[in-house]
């Protein structure tokens, strides 16, 4: 364990998930939330023909975008630039942070308000800005709660889903000066409204993510319910949008089907309260809106993922979070056990590819391969196949994924080799099964290799007679 | 920085060219076939928007300024932010009667108006370009005469909707009106008052944007 923890920078899913499983409060919070989300989503897609149609369309939009990704990014850059949006490119999160900081320093920014952005979580942007003396305030209510709690989001759509009202009431009382203790959700929400409105009005810069960027028109699309995204992108004099490079779509007409899949899959809403399409900074004669808009396009390993024909499918993702809501692992252990900005099935395939298998090689195993995520993925990402591929990459040295081969074990390789030899030879197979039927039950659970299995599972009971022997008795001949 | 640009694009191009991808055809029939007849559209819009706490006020072309004033007076609203340079704004200024809520024009740049906008405005009124039956959404394109924050910062947003400007889907609205030929600074779909479910999935209205959305249907 000590060695593994060292190699993975303290990221240890197995340990964190065991702890989460003991936490009855946490499990209750997730169980309630996920059951609700699953049943509400099912209502949204009750019309199977419509679901199949819009899902096929949305998938084709994402695949078409990936098929022309370099050209579409160039087109997006050209059209944004023509519209007055300044485009920046970052290979790494360090570079993206540096770009954001240099804009901040140029305008002498002290306070930043942020709309919800997963890419900014990936960049650890808040911590970076604080280090440089800039207050970075999350304004999405869930993100605000998580930030007050000095924690990480536990879900990509509902960041504070791991907490219940009582816990949030205590947090507000403890952290917000003017707060009176209340468990009334409307009053808690109103308190956040009062605190954050002052911040929107005085912030120097607004930061947002991007749900989709349209190459054809140079338009940034954001969906949200609260209005904090519109506030962050309209009130401060400077707006910085950060996006992963896969978020581009070709045409404006590609937006409606993807938004429809996104909002219905994510929160079971036919549409969010606001769909905010931004195509330029404030123009001559306009009375509000930012004077500057910057778009930071982040790679952070995505171009590497794109190079592999199979792994590339990870980049179809529209970040709806439905895969986590339906995942038997995520719904039990919650988001924090993954210790990653993206938890759940999509996180389990994305994080190892972005940060490498050495650090994240455990995550593809955080999966029962039940296929629930694949069934509901609105853009049909073959998540389980990619999960299997990454398990294999983790134990076979290669170039496709960072850290490939880092989890290779001689003992495991020998076991598989032995297994395959045994199954390839009828004689060896008969010998092995006869041996296990005789001696299997006598083998102590503490045997090396067997121990790895029996640590967390009951030891299987071996039948005293093999299937072949039973079949022979019934008169079925060996082939 | 252009170094990163070229590196990223170069890597993407090499990756794609080594393994080109043929996407399936995009068949928009599923959106094209979503249709509602005549009165059904407005009924559906009302039903969907009311489900997320939107209020409706029915009126006519002749009476809407008076009806809006009567509504706001009954609500105890102190003032109404409006765009004086629009046709609707001209009607409001000429037909507004004394003693009602104060009409406040959005006349200056936000930099000089911010304090009043955030602290002293109860309601704002804007026009819309229509509404969408599929999702129950208003289409709002802010303009220099009707700036972006009018539909966001005041606690109540009143939106004028012409009863004949209705679409089946978002896709229909954008393709029929050729939005791709020229997008405005900001285009919005608004489908209710601001809301959140971030505290234990309990819906609460009015978190950052308007607490109330009142659609004024003008026949």
Automatic annotation (TrEMBL), chain A:
It holds the Pfam family LutB_C. Keywords: 4Fe-4S, Electron transport, Iron, Iron-sulfur, Metal-binding, Repeat, Transport. InterPro entries: 4Fe4S_Fe-S-bd, 4Fe4S_Fe_S_CS, FTHF_cligase-like_sf, Helical_ferredxn, LUD_dom, LutB/LldF, LutB_C, NagB/RpiA_transferase-like. Residues 308-329, 359-387 form the 4Fe-4S ferredoxin-type domain. This is LutB/LldF family L-lactate oxidation iron-sulfur protein. It comes from Azospirillum isscasi.
UniProtKB/TrEMBL annotation, chain B:
It holds the Pfam family LUD_dom. Residues 42-218 form the LUD domain. InterPro entries: FTHF_cligase-like_sf (IPR024185), LUD_dom (IPR003741), NagB/RpiA_transferase-like (IPR037171). It comes from the Bacteria. This is Lactate utilization protein.
